[in-house]
Amino acid sequence: MLDLPELLEKVFQHLDRHDLTQCAQVNKQWHALTIPYIWRSLMCVCSGDERKKAFRRMVLEDYLQENGYQEGPQKPSVLSNYGHLIRLLPNHANLENALQTQACPQQGNEPTVQDLILHLFKHSSKAQAFKPPY
Is the pLDDT of residue 78 over 70? Predict the structure, then answer.
């Protein structure tokens, strides 16, 4: 017989990212159970300007924090906490596109797109790049 966490995991496997994020807010148990499903694929970062901006901001802030460019109290970085859960990444060209800055040219301490990609790969060592089926 299935207990509640096992039953919930069976349900969570079939939910989309939006529904999973809603479930993660129910309580601590649901949060712990949904996080691996939320982070398993980062394919959604390739669609929509707002998603690309949020993804770039997350990777950039994580990079800057980990490399000591941010001042003040340090919290654990997002990719340090969840990067090991990522199983599927967009292909290299789509990652480059998602991580490119839309604003001004590169400034002082700001890393290159390649630096950000390497930072992401460092934290998502179990991930595979998406390969189209053709």
Answer: yes
